[in-house]
Specification:
Chain lengths: 197, 414
């Protein structure tokens, strides 16, 4: 009589333990931080919350200071053609994929549509400008969006196509206070991104 | 473990397959709220909460003219419920309209984009008013509640496991992502559980078709509009790029609240029993109503990433020859984003055609420049970029276009 409920409880707890073991936040200390073939230099310690974001492909790392609702910094390894920043939940609900030969405007569109796939609304890009990925040319631009609840969101991004791979650094935060608060650090991080030698 | 799981699954199956006596609700009396002690009052409270969320949603289309237009159309179809029904147009790229028991009504841009005329929109809204007037939502809630008990235990178990992971995530968004993933599992349980319910709902759907037809024709709308609207939906679904979506027509009678079966379309055609009355002028008048939103809604539609369905929609919108620049531009956008076989060639042709029309979006020239440059057509690229900059000297992406021109001059177009 007692055994069956215990078995059920044990099953539920074990499943919970397995899930919680998989989902852990780690430290991303100040200094060089490598993601596959890309490297950035962090000015201060961040939390690497990649493990708890289920819609994240393996090549995408997610860092945060105050939790992902308040600031999030995506840094990707080089995405190959056909790969995405946001994992699709179903085959018939695809998310944007990187395609070989994308124009700079299409690379911006890839990032803005990926933000859309993260359920940000009315995503708009602005102010494209030249940047560097190590010594290679890259593209910087800013984004504006809203959450479903209407909160204003600001973002800034760098994209670089290097050896037929697309590298993305994307910082997203609420426009009020949080975006500006980490922007100096993010500018340093974006300015430091380069391919691993 | 396996035996226990089989027993659980068996219990689930038994629970879901139990025949439940249909709980028929009385037709609605205008201007009345249910008594606080009834189950209907609880459903109204949930509807009130959903309405509050819709009111504040960033997806709400706040164009007063458009909302007034839809509100007025509903008032013509359901004069007895005037004051009971409150319309919220939502910018969501799916074919949908809903009317909650408390009168809160959502009309999605995907429906407004797909209706060819006011007659077709009137039929769909009449259909929803039919559900509302007959209290079908109350019947549905009661039927689902009666069937829910068997699935509840498993649903709670899934939620408990997910909650454990969510709490351990240490962040609201992480928790949200985990719970959303668990929600999908719960959706599957929910859908399998209510598959029996929708065989019952089919009758409601057919009844709502007939009621919608009668309301629309009584208000003077084209009797053929209902069948035409549903047939267009069937055609668009069958053009989807995804097999699962294409197959939904056959399975729609199980999982969809709006199964568009051949029987339903034939029933409407029989009811109409007359030649279509809607004219090209009717279609033009309706297009004029939605034209201010056409570009934004087409852009939203592309975010569904179902190019087959989007091309079918654009073909249909193009049939009258209006908005040729805009629609051809978006045809180019579908090809460019799909990138199958010779899609980039088709895209380039579409942008080149779009710019021959006065209503072509400015981006047509920039994207034509990009694609022509990639294809090595320097003359077209140069001309398109120059025109873009001439038409939009303050374009925020001016630097990018100038960089493209510089590459062209250096003989390195791509």
């Amino acid at each position: 009589m007692i055994r069956r409920p215990l078995r059920v409880c044990a099953l539920v707890m074990a499943a919970g333990a397995v899930l919680s073991a998989c989902a852990s936040v780690t430290s991303a200390p100040a200094g060089p931080y490598t993601i596959g073939q890309a490297q950035v230099t962090l000015g201060h310690e961040w939390s690497d919350i990649s493990a708890i974001m289920l819609a994240r492909p393996a090549k995408v790392r997610l860092l945060s200071m105050d939790g992902p609702l308040l600031n999030r910094l995506y840094v990707t390894d080089g995405l190959a053609p056909g790969e995405f920043m946001v994992k699709p939940m179903a085959k018939e609900r695809p998310t944007p994929t990187y395609r070989a030969g994308m124009s700079p405007a299409e690379q911006m569109e890839f990032v803005s549509d990926s933000m859309g796939a993260l359920e940000y609304q009315r995503v708009e890009t602005d102010n494209p400008r030249p940047a560097k990925f190590g010594t290679a040319d890259a593209l910087r631009f800013d984004l504006k969006a809203k959450t479903k609840e209407g909160l204003d969101i600001s973002a800034t991004a760098l994209v670089a196509e290097h050896k037929e791979r697309l590298y993305v650094v994307l910082y997203i935060a609420p426009t009020e206070h949080y975006f500006a608060a980490e922007l100096p650090e993010v500018e340093t991080v974006i300015g430091s991104v380069k391919p691993v030698a | 473990m396996r035996a226990a799981f089989r027993r659980g699954a068996g219990a689930m199956l038994a629970a879901t397959s139990l025949a439940t006596t249909p709980v028929v609700a009385e037709p609605r009396t205008p201007h009345l709220r249910p008594a606080q002690t009834t189950d209907e009052a609880g459903i109204w409270a949930l509807s009130d909460k959903a309405e509050q969320q819709a009111r504040q949603s960033v997806e709400r289309n706040r164009d007063p003219a458009l909302n007034a237009y839809v509100t007025d159309l509903i008032a013509r179809l359901a004069p007895e419920y005037q004051g009971d029904l409150r319309v919220y147009v939502m910018d969501r790229p799916f074919f949908n309209a809903t009317m909650a028991p408390n009168g809160y009504t959502e009309v999605w841009s995907g429906l407004l984009l797909r209706a060819e005329s006011e007659d077709q929109l009137a039929f769909v809204l009449g259909h929803e008013i039919g559900h509302f007037a007959e209290n079908h939502a109350i019947e549905a809630q009661r039927a689902v509640k009666a069937r829910a008990q068997g699935a509840l235990a498993l649903q709670i178990a899934v939620s408990v496991v997910a909650m454990g992971a969510a709490v351990n995530s240490g962040s609201a968004q992480g928790a949200n992502d985990i719970m959303r993933a668990a929600g999908s599992v719960n959706d599957l349980i929910y859908l399998s559980q209510i598959s029996a319910f929708f065989s019952y709902s089919r009758e409601n759907e057919s009844q709502a078709d007939e009621l919608g037809f009668r309301r629309a024709t009584k208000a003077g709308f084209d009797p053929a509009a209902g069948a035409a609207m549903w047939q267009a939906q069937v055609s668009e679904t069958s053009a989807s790029s995804f097999k699962k979506v294409r197959d939904q027509e056959a399975r729609g009678s199980i999982f969809s609240t709006h199964p568009l079966s051949t029987d339903r379309i034939k029933a409407l055609e029989t009811l109409a029993a007359a030649a279509p009355r809607a004219t090209a002028e009717d279609r033009k008048r309706y297009r004029a109503v939605i034209r201010p939103h056409l570009a934004a809604w087409l852009k939203d539609d592309l975010r569904r990433r179902d190019p087959g369905s989007s091309l079918a929609l654009i073909d249909r919108l193009s049939a009258g020859g209006e908005d040729a620049g805009l629609l051809t531009f978006y045809r180019g956008e579908v090809y460019r984003q799909r990138r199958l076989d010779d899609d980039l060639v088709k895209a380039r042709q579409a942008y080149a055609e779009a710019i021959t029309h006065a209503d072509a979006p400015l981006a047509s020239w920039r994207i034509l420049g990009d694609l022509a440059a990639q294809a090595g057509d320097r003359a077209t690229a140069q001309s398109a970029y120059d025109t873009y900059l001439a038409r939009s000297p303050q374009a925020p992406d001016r630097w990018l276009v100038e960089a493209g021109l510089k590459k062209l001059s250096e003989g390195n177009p791509s």
